[in-house]
Amino acid sequence: MAERELLLGDEAVALGAIHAGISGAYGYPGTPSTELFEFVQGCAEAEGIHAVWSANEKVAYEEALGMSFAGKRSIISMKHVGLNVAADAFVNSGVTGVHGGLVLCVADDPGMHSSQNEQDSRYYAKFALVPCLEPADQQEAYDMARGAFDLSEQTHLPVVMRIVTRLAHSRADVVTGSRCPQNALNPTAETFNFTLLPTNARILYQRLTEKQPDLLARSECSPWNTLTDGPDHSRGVIVNGIAWNYLAEAFEGKIPFPVLKVCQYPAPVAKIRALLEMVDELVVIEEGYPFLEEMIRGVTGVHGKRIRGKLDGTVPRCGEMTPTVVAKAMGLAVQEGLAPSLEVVPNRPPTLCPGCAHGDAFLIIRQALAPWGDVRMFADIGCYTLGFYPPFNAIHSCVDMGASVSMAAGAAHAGMHPVVAAIGDSTFGHSGMTGLMTAIRENVPMTLVILDNGTVAMTGTQKTMCTGEDLVNIVKGLGVDPDHLKIIEPHRARAAEQAEILRAEFDYRGTSVVIARRPCVQLKRKGG
Amino acid sequence: MKHDIILAGVGGQGILSIAYLLDHAAIARGLRFKQAEVHGMAQRGGAVYSHMRISDSPILSDLIPEGHADMILSVEPLEVQRYLNYLRPGGVVISNNEPVKNISDYPDEAKVDAALMALPRAILVDAAGIASAAKMSKAQNMVMVGAATPFLPFEWQEFEPFVQRLFGAKGDHVVKANMTVLEAGWRVGAFAKALLDAGVSSAVVGRFLARVEPMTLDPATAGAFAGVLALPGTWAFLDGEGARVACDPGLLKSLSA
Asked: CA A526, CA A482: separation in Å to the nearest integer?
């Protein structure tokens, strides 16, 4: 029975997966992917689906692979940089293959709305030699997610669904279909496949490469890869995923040129060749890196054809596609809007919430560091990254989950002192623990401040797994000297006294940990 | 029929609730819509926006092309300035006049207001005043939904079931109060629209709206008021009144005299 539902792109993928009969959803929060998992979580109990956040993306991926081993379907969701964390499991799961259907939905963030880079996950799918689907709209997101599980079980491979911020966080009405029952428990008989000893892996990798012609054949006849003719063959256009919408918008739905819309990979090379033969020049408009463009251009280019796109400056290399960017790239006249009517329009960057404990913690840390002058502080991924902005000006690095800890250790190895790192409780659980364990082994002179606000705040107060006394016990278990493990409740009213505690640890020539514990104001508002 | 709207504001002002109401009203009318929103880091007090597209035919892009928006609906006056490049010629700006000064270099308030009044079609709404009069100071976003409604294919009453869904758990009185401020916003928006359509400038509309009680605005009388706003004695009379006055037949009579 078809129904219309209002869904974010993230939610459309989630509902497609639910209707495909998943038994598990796995992930770690990360904008713009978070709402996918949360949608499944919202109906997990009613649907009998396991949906509990994992400590990090690698754990999530491995849990899903275990469910596949047991014969059941599951979806994993993460942001693009999360796949860097899960890459070991992901790439090797191409070699093992899957038993129960396994779909990885990875949300890229062109334009870096909430990320450190614009990496394009299509490269990961190609790297792991597995199929990749890329919906252009919410309806395709739903339909592809449903179909992706069948594709996964037919090819015995994990399937990547690549979405981008503008789809993940855009809402539209979606026509939904019927639901499949969950797979029965049916552990694989082919345990050889999952045991990547070199002797086995050589055979399995060979098999993976032998699957490639089939994957290509599927792409060539995929209904998602459509070549549409147009009256004007002076030019042809290739678009991927959501870039299709912008191209169609730029021409108000009537594109005069032949267009190839690529939404299933490996890239359909026969269709690309067919388009090239029809036209004099080709414009490649990709939301993401020039993935197809580089492939088509190769080293020598295409004889007699001009290939235009991000590599020759026709399309901007950085930032996301928009209807206006695409219209300009296609040489269309663009309607101008109004200019600002105010002389100076100041930026309004995000800020810490009023009453946020991080603000007080930064104040106290800065005060404690005052005797040493301008000390740089390593920081990490979370709300506290906003400590970069005035009035705090407190942090001097933010690279990847857990980097604060290990970068501090490296700086201490080099002779910097004092060395201070700040990390949130959830980021510590995600990737900070191993760095701390490493530092403690040789008593590296550094201080780690764990800002324990009891939640994954930036992405919307998801449950953290190492807070309060659990966090204390984890830190103790990693082997920190109990005399150099301090717990404070940061408050600016007690800044002088608390800065003293921190200063003593900053001064100490060994590894120390200060837990600054005070609940997130957003969490309190939500009654958590 | 299509309506392309840029929703603007500051993280925490409830623009996703505005989007929720417009989305559901559109779907209830059998219209198509797409709505791209901002989640994540920007929601922490930063500039936030949403691209909302409502149409009776399928919508292609989730994002509105520059120069194509029919409306900028902003819950904060400075935020309008960030998105004017999206406004089409003849498009309307509807903005709350209550600033959110969470940055140290916030411009002079009077200049921010004047810059909006200088736009061809702009309506500055005292959403804070309307919301606090109903003891719902957080409901400024609901006032703005009401103010936008006269420009959209909806009646203000159509939002009630969705306001119920948003706030029903907090009690009937909260739903009722939200609908009250939404209606007041509608009165302001509809009256102002009629004045603008009659050729009254944004600045004069703004000046008039600042002098009258929002709940007394009857859009059906706007045409009559448009005529008297150009009279020389009007502003002397209105500015001479200490508080806001009722916008009723009595006022029209006084101004006409």
From this structure: 34
